[in-house]
Amino acid sequence: MSENKKIRTRFAPSPTGRMHVGNLRTALYAYLVAKHEGGDFILRIEDTDQERYVEGAVDIIYRTLEKTGLIHDEGPDKDGGVGPYVQSERQKTGMYLEYAKKLIDSGDAYYCFCDKERLASLKGSVGPDGKEITVYDKHCLSLSKEEIEANLAAGKPYVIRQNVPNEGTTSFHDELYGDITVDNSELDDMILVKSDGFPTYNFANVIDDHLMGITHVVRGNEYLSSTPKYNRLYDAFGWEIPTYIHCPLITDEEHKKLSKRCGHSSYEDLIEQGFLTEAVVNFVALLGWCPENETREIFSLDELVKIFDYRHMTKSPSVFDYTKLKWMNGEYFKAMDPDVFYEKADENRDIP
Predict the structure, then answer these.
(1) What's the pLDDT at 114?
(2) Is residue 41 within a helix (H) or strand (E), and if so which, with residue range?
């Protein structure tokens, strides 16, 4: 990335319910990365998975960002000239299918007409999480042009898959994890466009990030394994690859992934329990990052903007220490103006 290019980050949540602490941290870090350098913070709604869409969830996203002070410079309600900022609206323009067809023309993608029965018959392997992983066998890559045209003319359902070579390796760089190389044989021919015409997250985020000029991609480290496939898409289009910052996992105090079923896994859960927004933002900022040469732990959002340096983020999982959050919340209450304190106390009188 050019040294002089203005930094542009994005927060791209799916409207599936309350904002998880991990999503809030991603939004916060993306905001801080941009604002520390005087850059832009963009909000994009990724609603391509229509089955998981929850009514009212977009309002929750807006409300949470406003209350936490993570004010976006561009988004569905603030057009910066690269919209629409909602993926379903972008999909209606036909842009994703248009880009997928460019990849088909270049040999970097292909139509797949396999039905569910054939896909189910493919042998899979069991991944580290115990889930079965089925790797597509490139069956439809060998279809002739005539067969493809006949299938399309007959209205046969299809998906569009990325064509990843079986040989060789793909490398990428992450700001925290360094250089990572994977064998192409480990990469599946992932689906780019689904049978309903909607792009997958994996495809849409690459197209949108490029067209919106995103320079730094901040996201959870669960996307590390997909990044080589993203980079192959960037290379296929001849586009500049953004700077990647993959955030560490957040665990509960038993070192298990912080579950949505946990009583304090979302921002609104915490607010309902009587925690102050400022304390939550401060606490979340320290889940995976600590400032250099600082012994204090209480920081306002403006102070975080001034001192935040993503190079001091950790690769290790971060523990959601509920006791520490309660201590931090107490510090904010102690520093509060007495009149404001009594007002807050009255608001929270029914909280156990």
Answers:
(1) 96
(2) strand 40-43
Chain centroid to Cα 178, Å, comes to 19
CA–CA dist 329, 343 (Å, integer): 16
Q: How far apart are the C-alpha atoms of 228 and 243, rounded to whole Å?
A: 13
- Exposed, middle or buried by CB within 10 Å (0-12, 13-18, 19+), for 56? exposed
Residues forming a β-bridge with 170: 182
Measured distance CA(63)–CA(53) in Å, rounded: 17
Tokens representing 170 are 């793909």
Q: Is residue 143 within 8 Å of 149, Cβ to Cβ?
A: no
Q: Out of 67, 257, 260, 326, pick the active-site residue.
A: 260
pLDDT of residue 17: 87
Dist. CA 46–CA 69, nearest whole Å: 21
Is residue 32 within 8 A of residue 7, CB to CB? The reply is: no
Distance CA 9, CA 28 (A): 11
Q: How far apart are CA 5 and CA 54, in angstroms?
A: 37
Residue 209 has pLDDT above 70, yes or no: yes
C-alpha triplet 292, 293, 295: angle, nearest 5°: 110
Model pLDDT for residues 173-190, shown as the tens digit of each residue: 999 999 999 999 889 999
Kindly indicate the confidence band of residue 2, based on its pLDDT and cuts at 50, 70 and 90: very low
Residue 176 is classified by DSSP as T
pLDDT tens for 123-135 read 765 555 556 667 8
Burial of 43 (0-12, 13-18, 19+ CB in 10 A): buried
Judge whether 260 counts as a catalytic residue.
yes
Distance CA 18, CA 57 (A): 7
Cis peptide before 84 (omega within 30 of 0): yes
pLDDT digits (tens, 9 = 90+) for 50-89: 778 788 999 999 999 999 999 999 999 999 999 999 999 9
Please give the pLDDT value at position 50. Answer: 73
List the beta bridge partners of residue 109: 162
